[in-house]
Amino acid sequence: MTTPRPIYRRILLKLSGEVLMGEQSYGIDPQVFRTIAEEIKEVYLLGVQIAIVIGGGNIIRGIEASAQGMDRTSADHMGMLATVINALALQDALEKLGVPTRVQTAIEIRAVAEPFILRRAIRHLEKGRVVIFAAGTGNPYFSTDSAAALRALEIKADVILKATKVDGIYTADPAIYKDAVKLDELTYFNVLERGLKIMDASAITLCMDNAMPIIVFNLKVPGNIRRVVLGEKVGSRVVPESVAVGRPSTSEERVR
Question: How would you classify the pairing of strands 182-187 and 101-105?
Fold first, then answer.
């Protein structure tokens, strides 16, 4: 039996903190981490080099804490530390499955993780290790989405895979608006023009300026990461103008 061949050599997987909570309203669900680790291992066994940027919204979101009166810089630093907690939890889950994993942080915490060093990160990937980037960019006022875009460009990833709780990009929040329409493919400009909240504007602009494709998909569907890596039509794609086929497309119609 022929082993399926992935269409990507190196990927950047973006995991938001919210997908790590499971059915809880706060914190870490160990079973969710185990499930995600199993999904990642499936892709790892295909020979794909995997880097991960992980959020911290299941513990604290800096921008929300700031809105409640906390100093924004302090709140963002707390958010960075939350991503380190998640990174260590995911590293543990992956290594229990026999997947060698390294955590690199944008702020130095040498007792628990390596500092981010680009050449070392690339070397880990080339050696067949999963690399988890934690602590965002290391700077306040920048989201983990921006960190994902930055790290993807730095390591020369082929694509950013944005794992979410919905099956793609919609014209509006499908949990609120029942008439929201799923968009199968659109350009960076479409995302910015429509104000679609898949990633913040800084991250989208960085991807647009460097033609970094983004695929948004539902992490809760078993096997979805593998399907995306094998080139199956899963979720929604954000691509450069030169790649997009005409206007934003939906499963059933063109959205005007």
Answer: unpaired
Q: Which two three-digit tokens encode residue 113?
A: 């993780």
As a whole number of angstroms, the distance between CA 85 and CA 136 comes to: 12
Domains in the chain and their CATH numbers? 10-250 (3.40.1160.10)
pLDDT along the chain (256 residues), means of 10: 88 92 83 97 98 94 77 94 97 99 98 98 99 98 97 99 94 90 96 93 97 96 97 97 64 40
| Contact assessment for residue 17 and residue 165, using Cβ atoms and an 8 Å cutoff | no
Rounded CA-CA distance 219/92 in Å is 19
134: Cβ–Cβ under 8 A, 6 or more apart, which residues?
54, 80, 83, 84, 86, 87, 103, 104, 105, 106, 113
Of residues 48, 65, 47, the one with CA closest to residue 57: 65
d(CA 101, CA 91): 6
